[in-house]
Amino acid sequence: MQHFNSNGKILLTGEYAVLDGAKALALPTRMGQSLQVSEIDEKDQIEWKSFDPENKIWFNAKFRTENGHFNPVLSEEDQKDPEAKTIADQLQKILQSAFRANPGKFENSYSLSTRLEFDRKWGLGSSSTLINNISNWLEIDPYSLLKESFGGSGYDIAAAQSNNPVTFQITKNGPVSFAADFNPDFKDRLFFVYLNRKQNSREAIAHYRNQNPEHLQKLIEKISGLTESIISCDSLQEFEMLVQAHETLISKAIELPKVKQQLFPDYPGCIKSLGGWGGDFILATGSSENQEYFRNKGYDTIFDYSDLIL
């Protein structure tokens, strides 16, 4: 039996602009996802089970393998479930891409089980941790597997592989990541709030893409500079100033209001969107007493910085 584990992620800086070469700061989370692999006797078969944090199965399927094709076999109930069919299709795509990268690994049949340590709705990296675990098992390049399956910049793969904050950047030679010395003295004044507002980011991405090349290049340079400044800043006041500058730049680029302006205009501290704007988590500055502001508005999933980030 083989066991693999990958960390979840928070993208602190560089959302949207990371796709075009901006330097981003990614934070690995304490909660991640594991993969357990065992060989089985059945021929030409992959058995798959996915467990949630309560150890309940949320997806279960078999894949019949034949000449690099992985055909999902779902229960009668799951065949009527659009989500189960979508997940099966995604896994089929991942397995077939993985087969092309290392066909020799699939000469045997396997039982695979995944275990999430966080709610998969939170956006902490259920896809990226899966891709990284499968790549580690098969000894293939996770960035290539990500590109052929879910897509994206790859910052989440860098976080999945690291136990420290990392900078991530797409260069002409491919993605690069380095350990970042980001461990602020004021982290006890930082916390994360889950908004539970899944957003369609296509419009935001369309506005971002509509910028002329000159404006886009300036944005990339400014975001990269802010990332470096945020890593090196040594006071909460400076951090808040830099975060506000980052919010202003991205808000203008994607033509969306800042989340503080939209949802929390009377909050006394600073608020930053994370990842796709308007959904998943936000970062807020303040004390434990300030967290009550969000709880009173119905946002009950709140993490202190050190409870969420490695």
Automatic annotation (TrEMBL):
Q: Which GO terms describe its molecular function?
A: kinase activity
User: Keyword Transferase: yes or no?
Assistant: yes
Classification via InterPro entries:
GHMP_GYDIA-like, Ribosomal_Su5_D2-typ_SF, Ribsml_uS5_D2-typ_fold_subgr
The source's superkingdom equals: Bacteria
Can the keyword NAD be found in this entry's annotation? no
Query: Which keywords annotate this record?
Result: Kinase, Transferase
Task: List the protein's name.
Answer: GYDIA family GHMP kinase
